[in-house]
Amino acid sequence: SAHVAEGPVTELIGSFRKQYPGVVVRLADLRPVDVIGSLIRDGHCEIAFSHFPFAAAGLTTRVLGIHEYWLVVPHDAEIDWRDPFPLDDLPNIPVVGLPKESSSRTVIEKALQAAGSRTIMSAVVEQREAVGAFVVEGVGMSFMERTLAERAAVGGARICTLDPPITVPYGVIYDEARLSPAGRAFLDTLAP
Description:
alpha/beta, D-Maltodextrin-Binding Protein, domain 2, five-stranded antiparallel beta sheet, LysR family transcriptional regulator, LysR_subst-bd
């Protein structure tokens, strides 16, 4: 997922490129995520970043970190503001979200269901990076990965953590037997 390549992953790729300036890194958003395994096995993709858990029979997975999702609301929303905001007492504001096949939407919906919260959608946006702009313009609230939420706050949205927190581990998926020297070098730059 291209979204996983936010924050720390961008830093990892930047560090790798400084060590290996002749290696070209190509990123693509692979949706639905169930194609990742076949793309790696068929040699179309060497290393994939993804949210976990990820069923990857015969492939190696390595967790690199955890994304935390925050509540993002329009600046003029009239709500009883709290930080952290309880998942079981969300404001009555429609949600700007991602398509159903998005791994983060699945995790968020499960967390909302576990908290007994129900929401309605105001917009489904294919481009994850555009969600914050929709919130800033008052289309609805959203649940966004922390770094994207912070960007939306720069545009005027209000942001806060959630209680309980919504977190998703992310990492890399690869076939140890098919790694190129460049792929192996990239994985070697990752912390164990």
